[in-house]
Specification:
The chain has about 300 residues and is α/β, with parallel strands linked by helices. The chain has a single domain, classed as Aldolase class I (TIM Barrel). It has 9 helices and 9 strands. Helix 2 links the parallel strand 1 and strand 2.
């Protein structure tokens, strides 16, 4: 079935993300899957089939996500399949807990894993473990980073920007440098899938967001780290940092969940899709995905100046 479906994406995709399953060994406060009872998962054969057919239409990178993909029993085999099929970039997006065990990471490395994105939820054990709700998760993450450096696998740090973390972004950037990451991606928290109104307190105020993201980007560049804003629009970035905004459409990423239809990353509600009245005349409009629906409703955004 996926072979026929993928025909329409021929020449349009570089990456395919396989959402291996939705289970996780953390229960993060801002993650909707932590509240879901969805046991959907790809079988090893299904992942192999998607990988083979995506290669036929031009995919050269595979992104293993979740949930927590390292909990999937078929991950090592899927990584090896990707390598055998000729995938150039084989990326794992993970909380890092299982990578703290060097024997497991060695299996993934030998199978062909060559890129890892580690999820940083805080600048230290107290703040990180508070968000994951797993005592000791920060210690395991830092051990995972050491193991990845030993395996010579490049690390990207995914930093989730919330009202809890926004004031500590500089410290989180410094942590990323200490962990020897090559790059950092700032990901503004989304309320997609979080239906309770009380969850909205995790959204940082626009002025605070702009101020601390500017300082974080200055810090990253001073430390030699490449930094990208994936969900924070250019109008909230300092002028000198607006080139660091990344439109998800540039990935050429097809996201494939186990229990839903596949979709291009830029069409996801987590990427934005909502614009303010003043966005109509913004010079960056064509290369901006806008705001999430919840963020677009924040009162202070009405005072944002267009570019």
């Amino acid at each position: 079935m996926e072979e026929n479906f993928l025909d329409s994406f021929k020449g349009k995709i570089y990456w395919i993300e396989l959402v291996t399953h939705l289970q996780c060994n953390c229960s993060c406060r801002v993650c909707p899957t932590a509240r879901m009872l969805d046991n959907s998962a790809f079988s090893t054969d299904e992942m192999a089939s998607w990988l083979a057919n995506a290669r036929k239409v031009g995919a050269r990178g595979v992104w293993f996500g979740g949930g927590e993909p390292t909990l999937h029993h078929g991950l090592v085999n899927a990584v090896k399949t990707a390598k055998d099929l000729g995938y150039r970039n084989i990326l794992l997006q993970t909380n890092g807990l299982r990578l703290a065990y060097d024997h497991y990471l060695e299996r993934l490395s030998n199978a062909g894993l060559n890129m890892v994105s580690l999820s940083l939820k805080g600048a230290d054990s107290q703040s990180h473990d508070y968000m994951t709700r797993v005592p000791g998760s920060f210690e395991l993450l830092t051990e995972a980073a050491k193991n990845l450096v030993d395996e010579k696998i490049p690390i990207n740090a995914d930093i989730l920007v919330t009202s809890h973390s926004v004031r500590h972004l500089r410290s989180m950037i410094e942590l990323a440098a200490d962990l020897e990451t090559a790059s950092v991606t700032l990901m503004l928290v989304s309320m997609h899938g979080l239906d309770r109104k009380e969850d909205h307190h995790w959204l940082p105020e626009p002025q605070l967001l702009s101020e601390h993201v500017e300082a974080a980007m200055d810090t990253a560049l001073s430390l030699g780290l490449k930094i990208t804003s994936l969900h924070i629009p250019p109008c909230l970035l300092a002028k000198r940092h607006r080139e660091n905004y990344f439109h998800a459409g540039r990935y050429g990423l097809l996201v494939v969940p186990p229990s839903q239809e596949a979709f291009m990353a830029e069409t996801s509600p987590t990427e934005g899709g909502n614009y303010l009245e003043q966005c109509q005349s913004c010079s960056e409009r064509q290369d901006c995905l806008g705001f999430s629906s919840e963020y677009a409703q924040m009162k202070n955004l009405k005072n944002i100046s267009v570019l």
